[in-house]
Design goal:
Layout (H helix, E strand, L loop, with lengths): L1 H12 L2 E4 L2 E3 H8 L3 H10 L9 E3 H10 L3 E4 L21 E2 L3 E6 L5 H9 L16 E6 L5 E6 L7 H9 L3 E7 L6 H13 L3 E6 L8 H9 L13 E4 L8 H15 L2 E2 L6 E10 L3 E10 L2 E2 L3 E4 L2 E9 L5 E2 L1 E2 L4 E7 L8 E5 L2 H23 L6 H10 L4 E9 L2 H12 L6 E10 L4 H10 L2 E5 L5 H10 L3 E4 L2 H15 L3 E18 L3 E14 L3 E6 L2 E13 L2 E2 L2 E3 L3 E6 L10 E10 L4
Parallel strand pairs: 1-4, 6-8, 6-9, 9-10, 10-11, 22-23, 22-24, 24-25
Antiparallel strand pairs: 2-3, 5-12, 7-8, 13-14, 13-21, 14-20, 15-19, 16-17, 16-21, 17-18, 17-20, 26-27, 26-33, 27-31, 27-32, 28-29, 28-33, 29-30, 29-32
Amino acid sequence: MSGRGQVEQKEKLSREVTIPETITIQELANRMSERAVDVIRMLMKQGQIHKITDVIDSDTAQLIAEELGHTVRRVAESDVEEGLSSDEPDLEEDLDPRPPVVTIMGHVDHGKTSLLDAIRKANVVEGEAGGITQHIGAYQVASPSGDMITFIDTPGHAAFTSMRARGAKVTDIVVVVVAADDGVMPQTIEAIQHAKAAGVPLIIAVNKIDKPDAKPERVRTELLQHDIQVESMGGETLEFEVSAKTGEGLPELLEGIQIQAEIMNLRANEKRDGEGTVIEAQLDRGRGPVATVLVQRGTLFTGDIVVAGAEWGRVRALIDDLGENVQYAGPSVPVEVLGFNGTPDAGDRVTVVPSEARAREVTEYRARQKRERQNARTGGANRSLVDMMRDLKEGAGRKELPVVIKGDVQGSVEAISGALEKLGNDEVAARILLAGVGGITESDITLAQASKAVVIGFNVRALKEAREAAERAGIEIRYYNIIYDLVDDIKATLSGMLPPTLREERLGEAVIQEVFEVSKVGKVAGCRVQDGIVERGAHVRLIRDSVVIHEGKLKTLKRFKDDAKEVTSGQECGMAFENFENMRAGDVIECYRVEEIRRTL
């Protein structure tokens, strides 16, 4: 009986183990279903001392696995992602029409969210700080013909350039909103460039036509400067005059989008495994990591095992844009996905994989790549002493403002990090120690304390323990809900760290007539002011035979026996200098004032 049990145990333990080029001891143990301590013990027998988190090479891992009775399948790092998502075109008979994905872009405060709000008949804008969209939202609406249209609303502020770029990559059609009373603005131009780079058709929505100072013709003319010729001016770009306030022109806009989509003949295969893109991701305290995913191919079901960037998970729930639980989501459908082990990055590709083992293999490989890229960017722990010395030399004299950033969603954190990294110059810069999603924790404060950093909370708050730790350590926590306020504040702080520009203003010149020795004072120069004025406490240069032999400050300035604040041209005076007494008759004294001019980035 005991013999049969041993055979069964042996059969149960013997398995095929996939080993990449490098693997941690903990992960190797997990894949073999063995105890990590047994793996460490076997390595010790070979004369190697390791910790559970140490990385070993594939040869060592193979020896351990085979000694424990497992078979090994070696994979090269480049093979890990092979076959993860198929780029092969779908069969014609498998393709069905899908809703168009429309991205709304444009300048800040040109009415993008209000326009979408009017289309959705739901008030979103009131919940946003200052009426500014802070992160991407995705919604589905029905057009007048009854067909569905998926809208992605992207923020318009300059800090969100990267987010708008992502919006353009997942979209079929771009609607650029331009305010009729404001015209083409910097972010309008950016939106046009993103749409052109993505190679997608443009539709112009001239908003706020209900305003008395609306000038739609001006918008059309300004668009010509950016190679956009609208239909009313003989071009091919569709344009619609709309008002988010009154609803005027909205049915025509939706109809125009639908016509454009029909011309494009948008189709997808919904019978395959789901693939899509993370539009936004956040860490919800009650629900864990939540990713807004736009499904682009196939169908995503609850229970699917999915990989997104360096994170994986089993889909626990799918929630549509109305907040309802759904069992599946097909092409062009935006859903919130619950069940990820960690918060993926906005823009990550979402792919369904067959097993947890495959998911772990892919995410570990990606996490390792991410760490290596991070190390390469920040100069990781494996740098040589020569590298460190070179970096110190290059960064000598550069002042840095260490910053810890915590935000509500990944896209906002990414946009803040990008905006702050662009603020610096050769003299000052913001150094981001940590940029993460979720509330401010005690460990964030500990990190900030160690490096004297400023902690920034964007739409998040510090936990009670973190607040108390910050008070004890004297760490400043700054809270924001509008990105450009945050960027402006950090810019002002960095500007304050810049050394001021020193500007010299010449006051006057005097010639030494005679030098006197005065008890308790030392040598005093009897001078005549030749031009301008001489001020007490001003900066002076002593010039002898056209050569500067001393620079310093005036210690005393006397007119006869009385102290004088200033002496003007043509008058005589007595001068004594700070820490200098080697004056001679005939020396010229140049008097000047140094003005400090505050610099800004």
